[in-house]
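Final paragraph of the annual report: two paired records, presented back to back.
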Amino acid sequence: MNKNMCHISKNPGRTKTMNFFAVGGEDEQGNPGRLTVLDMPGYGHKSRAEWGEEIMKYLIGRKQLVRAFVLIDSMHGVKRSDESLLQALRENAISHQVVLSKVDRILFPKGRDATHQMLLRNATALQQTAGSIRAKLDAMNVAGPKPLGEILACSTAASLEKGKWLGINNLRWAVLSATGLNEIRKQPMLLNADRVHDVASETMPEATKHRSKS
């Protein structure tokens, strides 16, 4: 997404409002795109109680909501704040899916180009991380629907192929699938946390990390 439209920051608490983005442009009648993406304030460090109250009001009361995507830091796993949100989503039967963020820190922990063997080893570590998170989610003693689909994995700091950030196309596909718009798009090669080892093994013999300088 255009950075001039959607501002980002490395500092927690940068997003203070719920920001809506209509995707797909207007139709002939001037109606907004068929898909609306909502960026919400974080619920962890630097968050505020009043933000959480308003967020839950929206999630519970918004009938048009088809799926919430919950970002979990791959380096920290499921924290207490994550558990609280996931519990609320399940108790209120809100469709949701888990996304592991910052997976470059596991695949490329030292910030350098990785050989093929190093990448495969680190991909195995990411699979194990995803497995432990999945087990923790399954063990939650909460009534209500569990997270949908596979655990997705993504990063906006590294890629296996130049210009294509790790797992971002797969996350976009999950959004399209949730809204029923996937029929008009070609499905990308899947990159979820359970299959990242297979994807890594299909890349160049010497896989090179392309890392953002920002």
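The closing record of the year follows.
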Amino acid sequence: MGFTLTAHGRAGHSGYPELFVNANSLLIRVLSALENMEMPSSEKFGKSTLNIGYLQGGVAGNVIRGKATATVQIRNAAGTAREMRERVVDLVRGVSGGKVEVEFASEGYGCVDIDADVEGFDVMTVNYGTDIPNLEGRHKRYLFGPGSILRAHSDHEHLTATDLNLAVDGYQILIMESLKSK
């Protein structure tokens, strides 16, 4: 579940903070509360996670910012997307007094249960979203790919030729197994 927070303050010169409302300060309080919010967990899907992925606010060190934004992602490991959405909205309103808006990118979805019934594959719970819930029809639901999620989006993200060759072999096995179940 992804959302954008927008804090609305009142811009002015930093020499007179009592006359203005710092949007950055509002946003920081909300983000801190979100990071400290009790998150649900489950035995099967592990802990829910929260990531503050992008912050924007400020024009200069001597300016109280009138507007600040942040994008946040939550991977919910228990409960429904609606329940998490309500928790986020209530927390943001409570902490900011209505001065920080929440805009959800989508409704989001809960945990995704996938098939893991083919021998020879390592199986693990992963903390990221997938398009699997959007696939229509009755079919096996496998989540598989080359490389390591632990290197993804990092400065050392890469795939080796071996990773790609193993992935081709793995996809062939999954396809053959899927065809057997028809």
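Helices lie at 23-36, 81-96, 161-180. This concludes the annual technical report; the extension proposal builds directly on these records.
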